[in-house]
Structure formats: C-alpha cells, structure tokens
Amino acid sequence: MFTPLIRTVVEWISGPDWEGMDGAARSAALGQFRIALVQVAAALGAAVALLFTAFNYRLTRRGQVTDRFTKALERLGSDQMYVRIGGIFALEQIVHDAPDQATHAAHVLVAFIRDRAPRTERRNAKKERQSIAAIRRAARLRVPFPEVAPELPREPAPDIQAALTALTRPTFRALIEIDGSMRTIDLSGLHLSRVRLSGADLSRMDLAETDLSWATLTKVDLSNARLWRATLTNAWLEKANLSRTWLREAELVKAKLAAVDLTDAVMGASDLTDADLTGALMDGADLRDSHSSDIPEGREANLTRADLVGADLQTASVSVAQVLVAKLGEGSRLPSQVAADPQVAVRLGTTAHTD
User: Fold this and answer.
1) Taking the CB of the first residue and of the last residue of the chain, which one, N or C, has fewer CB atoms within 10 A?
2) What is the pLDDT of residue 292?
C-alpha cells in the first residue's frame, strides 16, 4: 500500500532523472538539487523555531504585563499618596505598552476615583438626613453620637487628579472598548470642584449630579455626556464640545461658555445666569424641555444676564421671555419667530437677524 509512495519520495529525494544529460552534468545538477532541498528544510525549521519563539515571547510578555498590573494595583491600595500616584502612572505605562489592557485599566481607575473622591452635597443629603435621625435616636438612647461628615475639599486630591487625567486622556479613551462590560464611564455624584482637565475626552460619561464648579474644562469633549443636575458654576468651558449633552437642571451660573458647541444639547431647567455664551453654537439646542411632556411649565433654562453676543440660536428651542432677560448684541442669531417679537427687535436694534 505504501510502497509506491515510498518509492516516489525516494526518487524525489534522489533528484530528478534528466534525460540526455551526461554523468558530470547530472551529478552537478543533483548536487545543486540536494543543496536546495537542505536549504528548504532549514528554512522550514527556522520558521517553526521562529513561531515557537514568538509564542513563548507572547506568553512571557503576558506574564510580565500581568505581574506589572498586579504591582500597580498594590500601589493604588497604598496609604502613601506618592505611591498611589506611582501606581496610576504605572497603569498608564502598561496601557501604552499593552493597548489591549486599556479597558481593564479604565475599570480600575473608575473604581479608584469612585472609592476615594467624596460625594457631592446633593448625594450626601439623604445620608445627612439619616445621620440626623441617628443622632436623635442616639440622644434618646444615650449612646455616642455618630461622626459628622467631613467638610468637602476645595479641590481634588493629587491622586484623584492624576487618575482623572489618565482616564480622560484622548489617547487612552481611544483604546477603551465601550462594550457590555463598560457601556459608559460612571463618575456621577462626585465632588470634583476645581478639577483641571483641559483638552480631555469626557464624551459619553455619566456626570449626573457631579460638582464641577470652578473646573478647568477648556476644549474638552463632553459630547453625549450626561450632566443632569451637575454643578458647573464658574467653570471654564471655552471651545468645549457639548453637542448632544444632557444638561437638564444643570447649574451653569457664571460659567465661561464662549465659543462652545451646544448643538442638540438638552438644557431645560438649567441655570445659565450670568453665563458667557459669546459666540456659542446652539443649533437645535433645547432650552425649554420641549422634548419632554412630563416637565411642568416654568422649567425653562434661566438665561438671566447670559451673554448671547454672537451666539447662534436660530434653530434652538428658546422663548421670547428667555431671550429678553439675556444680553443680546451684534451677531446674536435667534429663531425667526423670537427675533420678530417687537421687544426682542428693540433689544437687537434691528430685525435683520431673522432667518
């Protein structure tokens, strides 16, 4: 059964039988053929060895990454501030060397921030009520009073700032897989006043009820972010991307919003008192909650003294009453029905701003 096959293999190894070739030429050709055969075998062996080496390298590298990840986690759990910051930098370096670890690193950083950052006063209100009830019970039972919640810090601790910077770095966010395990980054309800994140990528983040007052957020990407009831008082947001952002009931008092993109943003019941919206793009922005039927009347965005000079609200959902309490001037573009109102026309000084 195997005899013909064995004979064929032996003949192939012995070399081809070229007819019409004398002995010397045939011998030379046979030698060249066998040399080529040896070279092919050597190349195949080298390829197998290379694949084996690459496989071992991947296993070794994966083990090294796992070891580095474990050490970074140990540092994050340290009682020393500088050790925790070193752990954050170590995670960043791991992601730089092994981009497939970005999502895992993001989970760790989010857990670290949520564990160490204080909760906002709004989120603490329920706990405070519970504490008051506990104090009253303690007084009746004559037991020690529970501890009073500490005062919120003026700005984030250095390790929290470092973790936020790493998590929101655009190059880092680009590597995170938004899948079933991490549909969004949840930083809601945290006290992050005076955080510095210029140029950061905060898109699709859940920042509901988060305190970002006095934060430096110039040129940040907040598109599709959830900022319901967020506090952005005195925040710096110049040239930020707030398109399709949920800002309902947000506090934007005295916020610096010059040249921001608020396209299709939902801003009903938000407070924009004294906010600077100079040159803002508000195409399709909803300042009246016209999209929601369960919002009572009088829940429009407050534009008292908001600077709308150069702002584009031509397709925004805004009322005459809202516009009349704002600062209007050269370049203020309003919806045609609003700009046609006599009082608004007087404020504008012309009706040339209609569509």
Assistant:
1) N
2) 42
